[in-house]
Amino acid sequence: MKNEIDLFYIQKVKAGDFHAFSAIVSKYQNMVFTIVLKIVENREDAEDITQEIFIKVFKSIQQFREDSEFSTWLYRIAYNATLSELRKRKLFFTSIDDDFIAINESFTDEENNEETEIKLQYLEKAMKKLPPDEIFLLTLHYIDRQSVENISRISNLTVSNVKVKLHRIRKKLTIEINKLMQDEQ
Question: Is this model's pTM higher than 0.70 or not?
Answer without folding.
Answer: no
